[in-house]
């Protein structure tokens, strides 16, 4: 597992460079005392491993920028891909304060030649487009949700896709119209540097106020969408029964359609941000997550990998 004695660890993303596994993670000092204060103190750390279990911490990736900047409050969750020219691109969420103490989230990137030293480009490349997405100020949500970029190459070689945690600018009717607006946002790029909105890949009204830290993955020839949601942001028929945790929805492809109506939880309620990665030695798909609350105390560490596989139409975990 990955546990830091001096810092909490939470959201993370994984990479296999062909020789070692990398984990990039959000961390903040335990000296804050209050775990909820970590979000506005988040920096991005980095560790490497040969087996996804034993991790060696290496130099940190980045911290928030000096104000005024689009990422002067905190740097949050992202993903890493390699450009055909050999450069590594880390897409990440930057946040800045909004009136009233909330925050505005945008997406930018940093580049590296060796995965160890990273340089921010200094500007964001995407923000919530009001044509499709809810902006802060509507009075319906606590922030402007536009974060957690998951970037991958188009399967047919047509550029790059980005999936995004976002909220639709309209509801689906019913008593939860104003809050049940979580969607999977979508953008496309020809070169990882220029990005354009393509509109959300899902619709509001599926029972999730936000669909966090998304990842698409193929497991034994079948596509899934992995995401996380807190119990307080679940609506409709699931409300009152579901708990916080990691969810998955069956998908027809890496770009959907995603069967959110039949999404299911996987793992215990203490786990959040489930990430999948292929074990290059065994070919198995591994599942990692971070531990949130246990007996009312925030833990803040990443678990050892578990194998995830299909059991009929559902996914199961085994040690």
TrEMBL record:
Q: Write one Gene Ontology MF term.
A: beta-fructofuranosidase activity
Which Pfam families would you find in this protein's record?
Answer: Glyco_hydro_32N
Sorted alphabetically, which SMART domains does this protein's record hold?
Glyco_32
Q: Does the keyword Oxidoreductase apply?
A: no
Keywords assigned: Glycosidase, Hydrolase
Q: Where does the record place the Glycosyl hydrolase family 32 N-terminal domain?
A: 19-295
Q: List GO BP terms, alphabetically.
A: carbohydrate metabolic process
Entry's transmembrane regions: none
Q: Cross-referenced CDD domains, in alphabetical order?
A: GH32-like
The record ties this protein, via InterPro entries, to: GH32_Enzymes, Glyco_hydro_32, Glyco_hydro_32_N, Glyco_hydro_beta-prop_sf
The answer to keyword Hydrolase applying to this record is yes
**What's the Enzyme Commission number for this chain?**
3.2.1.26
Domain of life assignment: Bacteria
Task: Give the family per the record.
Answer: Belongs to the glycosyl hydrolase 32 family.
Family annotation (PANTHER family): BETA-FRUCTOSIDASE
This chain belongs to the protein called beta-fructofuranosidase
**Organism encoding this protein:** Nocardioides cavernaquae
Show the taxonomic lineage. Answer: Bacteria, Bacillati, Actinomycetota, Actinomycetes, Propionibacteriales
